Amino acid sequence: VGDGTTSVIILAGEILLGSQRFIDDKIHPTVIINAYRQALEDAVEILKEKISIPVDMSNENELLSILRSCLATKMTKKYGDLLPQIALEAVRTVITEEGGKKVIDFKRYARIEKVPGGAIEESRVLRGVMLNKDVLHHKMKRRIENPRILLLDCNLEYKKGESQTNIEISQDMDFTRILELEEEYIKKICDDIIRMKPDLIITEKGISDLASHYLLKAGITAMRRVKKSDNNRLARACGATIVNRPDEIKESDIGSGCGLFEVKKIGDEYWAYITECRDPKACTVLLRGPTKDLINEVERNLQDAMNSARNVLLEPRLCPGGGATEMALSQALTEKSKSVAGVMQWPYRAVAQALEIIPCTLAQNCGAQVIRVLTALRARHANGETSMGINGETGEIVNMNELKIWDPLAVKLQVFKTAVEIALEAVRTVITEEGGKKVIDFKRYARIEKVPGGAIEESRVLRGVMLNKDVLHHKMKRRIENPRILLLDCNLEYKKGESQTNIEISQDMDFTRILELEEEYIKKICDDIIRMKPDLIITEKGISDLASHYLLKAGITAMRRVKKSDNNRLARACGATIVNRPDEIKESDIGSGCGLFEVKKIGDEYWAYITECRDPKACTVLLRGPTKDLINEVERNLQDAMNSARNVLLEPRLCPGGGATEMALSQALTEKSKSVAGVMQWPYRAVAQALEIIPCTLAQNCGAQVIRVLTALRARHANGETSMGINGETGEIVNMNELKIWDPLAVKLQVFKTAVETAILLLRIDDIVSGTKKISDLDGPNQTQTAPAEPTEESMRE
Predict the structure, then answer these.
(1) What family classification does the UniProt entry report for this protein (predicted)?
(2) 231-275: per-residue pLDDT in tens?
C-alpha cells in the first residue's frame, strides 16, 4: 500500500459517514468518540497478536516480493524487479544505529538525481554521491582512483573585515603592498591544505583564481559552492569530516573511503561521481528516462517503494493484503462489540462494518459482483481463513500469503492514547510559590513541542527544555553529562557603532591593524567566557565564526539565536542567570542543575535536549504522532487536561460528577428556600430547579428515559446518597465516587458564579431598557396614565 494515504482517506470517509446516523439518533459525540477510540485500541492489539506475521530479513526474494506488491498497481510494474531492487538497496545503504535503534533517513541521505535522455533500465544506485558540478579548472584531473578527499565549509579567498572599510592609497607602493598581503594570506591557507596531500577538495564557499592556481600546481582537483546537504552526504559516504578553518586540518579529517572520483558529461552538463565507496552511509539514486514527465512518475513510484522498504526494515512484520486484514479485523471487532455495554456498542460495531469498505472497493475496481464476493469472503474468514483476500485484477478470492501480497504492519498501525498522566506530571513540574500562594503558569513554562513522525506512545514530559537547534559547529560536542550552562542575551561578534561609520585607511598596515583589533575584541570576550569554564553557551544573539573557533578550541559547545522565551525557560530549568555582558559573568550565573545535554536528529531536523534537570521550574511536553492533524487534536485534549490538573492542584477538593453535584445542590437549595421570606423565595427556588438541567442533559445524551432517570435520581439523593449520578455512556444511576468521576471544586464554583452573575447582568440590562421605555411613554401625549402596580405575593405565586 505504499504509505497508506489512499486507504486512510477511504476508511476515514466511511467511518465519518456512519457517524452521521448516530448524531441523528441523538447519541452524544463524546460517546461516539470513546467507542471509536476503544475500537482502534482493540484493532491494534488484534493486528499485532493475531493477524501480522514476521518477516525473514535474510530472505532477499521475500523482501523484493513485498516491494513488488507495493508497485503492483503502478505504471512501473512492467519494469519488473528494477525499482524494488533500487529501493531496497538505497534504503539498506543509509541504515545507521543511534541509541540501539535503527535510523533510516533516506530523504536526506539517499538523493534522487533525475537525468533525462536515457532508458529507464539505466537507472541504478550509486554507492556514493553524484553532483551536478565540474572541476574548477580545465587542467585539473577528472578521474582519480582512491582519492584523498578534503571537505570544507570556508572560503579559499582573501578574508574581508566584518566592518565596512574604505582604503585610501597615497603612494604607488601601497597598492602593491595590499596585493602582496592578499597573495600571502591565500598562499598560507593553500599551504595548510597542500601539507595534508589531498587529491580532491570540495567546499561550500568560494575559491579565488589565485587559490585555484596554487592547488593546480600541487596537482589537487577542486570543486566549489556545493550545497550544505551534498557536503553532509559526502562526509557520510567517504568518511571525511567537514573542516571550518584550513589551519586546523588533521589527518583524521581526510576522507579515504571513496573508490573512484570521475567527471562525466551527460547531455550538455557535467556530473561529478564520488562513488564505489567502502561502507557508505549515503547514496545517490540515478534515474534515467526519455522524458522528464516519465522520470517524475518513476520517482513518485520509487518514493512509495522506499517508504515500504523503510517500514519493513524498521518493523519486520507484515499483514496480508487484498482486503484480508480489514475483513479479519472487521469480524474480530464485531465479535468483541458484544461485550461493549450501553449505546457505545453501536458506534463500536460501526467501525467494524466500515473496515469492509477496503475489500468492497477492491471488488468494485476490478468489476466483480460486490455483494457476492463480499458474502463469500465473510464466509471464508468465518471459517478461520484470515489470509484470504481479493485479487485486484480478477476479483477472485485467493490466499494473499501464496500470492505474496502483503502490507507492512507499520503502515497499518495508527494509535490514539490519552495524555492525562503527561498533563499531571507537566503541571507538577512548573509549580512555584509567590507570596505564600501556589502559582502554576504552564502556558509560559510548560511548552508543548509537536514533532510528527512517531507514535502517540512516544509522547512524554521532559524535565527541562527542548530546542529546535543544532550546535554551532559540527565538531562541537553533541552530548554532555552534568553540563555547566551559561545563558547570554548579547552578541559574540565584533561590536559595531550604533551610528554608521566609514573607516578611511591611509597606510597598508592600517587594514591589517583593523582586522587585528576585531580579532583582539572577539578573543577578549571569549577569554572572559572561557575563564568561567562553561560546557555549554546559549545566546539569544549571534556568534561570529572567529568566536566559534575560540570556543571550539576551548572545548565549549555553543548555540545561537534562541528565542527570549526559551532562554527564560532554560534559566528556570537549570538555575542559570541570563547575562548581558561577558565581562560581568559571575560563578553564580552558571547553571549547574541540568543532568544531560544532547542533540538528536528527528526526521529532517536537529533538536537539542537540556533535560534531567534537578528541581526544574520549567519543562517541555514532547508530542509525537503519525500526522500533524492528530498531534494538534492531542494538544487540544492535553490543554484541557492540564487546566484540570492546575485547578485541582490550586484547590485540592473534588465534587462528584455525572450531575450528582447539581442534584445534591438542587435539593439542598430547595430545602433552604423554605426559610426565605416573601416573594424572594420563588426566584431562589427557581435557581434550585435550574440546576437539574445538567443531569437532565446527561440522560438525554446517552439515550435514557429522562423522566424515569431523574425521578429515580431525586429519590436516591432524598435518601442521602449525594454521590449518585448518571453514567454518561449507559444512562444508569451509579456511585460517582466508585467510578472515580469527579469535577474540580474550582471549576464548579466558577461555573455556578458565572451562570448566576450572567443571569443577574441580563436582568439588570432588561430593567434599564424597560425603565427607559416607560419614561418615553410618560413623556408622550397620554401623560395621565398610571404606572403598573407592584407585584403581589399572590401574583408571583401564580
Answers:
(1) Belongs to the TCP-1 chaperonin family.
(2) 999 999 999 999 988 888 999 999 999 999 999 998 889 999 999
